[in-house]
Write a structure and sequence with these properties.
flavoprotein, 25% helix, DHS-like_NAD/FAD-binding_dom, 5-stranded parallel beta sheet, alpha/beta, Rossmann fold, 17 strands, electron transfer activity, 7-stranded parallel beta sheet, single chain
Length: 321
Amino acid sequence: MDNNEIWVYIETTGSRVEPTSLQLITKAKAIASGKKVVAILLETPSANFETIVKEYGPDRIETLIDDHFVNATDEEIADALFQVTDKNRPNSLLFPATILGKSIAPRLQAKLETGLTGDSLDIFYENDLLVQVKPTYGDNVMCDIVSPDTRPQMVTVRPNTFRAEKATNPQTEVVKARFTFHKQADSDIIATDPIINSSSKLDDAKVVIALGRGAYSPKNIQLAQDLAAKLSGMVGVSRPLTDEAEFNHDDQIGIGGASLSADLLINLGISGAVQYTVGIKNAKKIVSVNIDKDAPIFEESDFAYVGDVTDFLNALTAQVR
């Protein structure tokens, strides 16, 4: 049976709730238009993640509780989710586009025989259709994708695309879902090692100094690195600079790279193409420097400086203790 709810998969790692899941609860509530927002949470009996999830105000939390989830394979998680979602199919099912989310979502999609859009940068409703916005053609075109004939409408959304906002809902109901854990006969998890790369650190950095083609020079790179070090921040770049020897894909901001949630972002010599600006929407304060007074990046900025990047870096670095 289909229903008119939006379900959000709550990803957990150790004692931590993946922030993207909380961001998706906030986004789901914003676009719900009367639909109930349901968090679907898999946990062990000793965990209590629903306390954290409640702070973001879903209408209901469906908990799947079993000791095996401490070391469950992706296939075992997908099987448990299938048992619950197949009984009462929601209108939509949202996943974080994390390593785990991008592994579980397609497994569940195949079981449900429905559609799935990966790595979306926006979602919204047109009547009952979930429109999933995704870059294509080398990240140069934004494409709207819909799944009109099957439910749930499934999508993975990139981290930090939306901002999580606490919104206490006194009516939040916690329900223990009924399912049977099916052990995967041909697979066991022996050990887990977290993968940490500079891209994930860039996502979480509080201060980011971003360099574009207009600021590319050995001197500006060194000045930006010095400033970032003083501010306990990181240096990122727009896509063209990933072709240079000093940088790589892990340093990229925007489509195909990091989505920032920094407290402070300083853009240096970046024009402001959409491929870049989609990755900075959640930065809290944006300062941009460009010699072109009509650069599109200024429309995305809280503060603008029209002038030379090197002069700006020298002056600002001198002021930072």
